[in-house]
Design brief:
It is built from one helix and six strands. By secondary structure, the chain is mainly β. The chain is flat. The termini are far apart. The relative contact order is 0.20.
């Protein structure tokens, strides 16, 4: 009924292979146009935890929330926007992913430490 990574298995595997081959550290995927927000994490067959942050829906909310076994926490089915803040100067640099509602309140949050987004030497 709609497009999603699950519908493009070969492209998904090509992305994971490219991350390994090029030792592409620091990748976080962002997506939208789904009319809900969610934060997902792929660990299986990934060179490091691969995060996907989806936010959209300033004008409408999708009536259903597709299943997602990789979703961390709940989906946000309200009008929202996404914000990514990066703290380069902390002792352990990180990024904060937030889905924020129309009142300005963060409703979904995930902190990701940048040193966790590295291809292992043996990969």
């Amino acid at each position: 009924g709609w497009e999603a990574w699950i519908n493009y298995a070969e492209d998904h595997q090509r992305l994971l292979q490219a991350i390994r081959r090029h030792r592409a550290d620091g990748l976080v995927c962002i997506s939208g146009d789904t009319h809900y927000a969610e934060i997902s994490r792929l660990d299986t067959n990934a060179p490091y935890p691969l995060w996907d942050f989806t936010s959209s829906g300033l004008t409408e909310v999708w009536p259903v929330t597709p299943r997602n076994a990789r979703r961390i926490g709940p989906a946000l089915r309200e009008n929202n926007f996404g914000l990514i803040s990066i703290d380069w100067f902390a002792a352990r640099p990180s990024m904060l992913l937030q889905a924020i509602d129309v009142s300005g309140v963060p409703r979904l949050e995930q902190r990701i430490y940048l040193d966790s987004l590295r291809v292992a030497a043996s990969v």
